[in-house]
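Objective 1b. Sequence-to-structure analysis of TMPPE metallophosphoesterase.
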Amino acid sequence: MISFKQLPIEAKAAVAAGVVFFSMMLSRSYLAEKLDFRTRRWLLRLQMALFANTLMLMGSLHVWRSTVTTFTRSSAANSFCFMLWKIAVFVFLALAHSSFFTLLFLVAEEPYFFSLAAYTCLGAYIILIFFLFTLGSLEQGYKFLAGRGAKAGTGNKNRTALKPVLAVLLTVVLTVVGLLNASQPPTVNSVEIPVHKLPSTMNNLKVVLLSDIHLGPTVGKTKLAMIVRMVKALKPDITVIVGDLSDAEAKIIRPAVEPLGKLDSPLGTYFVTGNHEYYTSDVSNWFELLKSFNIQPLHNENVKIVSPKSTSDWFCLAGVDDIEADVLHYSGHGMDLKKALRGCSSAHAIVLLAHQPIAAKWALQERPDINLILSGHTHGGQIFPLNAGAYLLNPFFVGLYQVGQNTFVYVSPGTMYYGIPMRLGSRAEITEIILRSP
């Protein structure tokens, strides 16, 4: 039987990741009710950071071997430039690994440069791993088809050296493109949606949808103030924020949230939780902070949105807690559609706010009379190559979907970004939704 010491380092990293993951599940299941919020918050974040880093360690070993070890036998291995290259690769990997710890130590009103650099390296790391794996697979496929799997020669050595060089060049180009794309203001996407049983007096009602702003290590007050200015310029009747507003505790990041106080939609501004609100373990304080800015959280509840033209005309706006609250055993929280739609009948139009598209799917299975669901969460994948995974994992990916004859689901690609200040294959968006009566 092979001992732990005899395992290759990749296998040791995999075992370590498994241990951390098991500890996460154990603490979620058995310690959730026994720990105070602050201890639970730090434990959860520390576990998530350690889990991510143990998984990344396997990839980092591959990156080092592909970009450094491969060239140690070349004529340039003893040169000063190669020494600088080794240092650059080491710093790059160290920054990528440190990104997850910035949530614990580097969150303020505006992002720290270190956090921006660390998360940029994390984004480049993901892209680099993808290209190294893809090019390596193509190389192995070529060898197999060419019948050269057992032959070694100059051509093979040249291709082996070309693979990491090409992967690094592609990563640099896409990283720059992604940074430039994410640095642009969100695009304003105007969408008209027919809402069954919407009163004629509420035709052309304007709802502005925000999602996944992720105030935290790489998004601060300046970005949020820009979003608020753009929303106010649209002059919405209603503004809704469908989760993942922040990745930090309310007290720590309160100064960055102040621009939200300038939202003044005449029919109200409403908020539902996303999974990241529960990762902060500070939802109650977030609710109180948002209320101080005249933003109403919909905690498995609903409100009547009354027509400015006729008090007898209204529709039901409901919101559910994010489904992650159930996974985390977050006391007093969890998706409760029955409670959220209490008093909402099919006699009036129903609009539901639910952060995750999977929650939208579950809601429609239980209440097919819901007319419109507004969600976020997917970020449109945010960066290549994560787009494919986000598409496969969600029943609704991004944009407008019609489900049945009288039901629509709209999924926002996100108003900012999570951590990595990059966008590839997706674009940040502020959604202007025009509700049409039939």
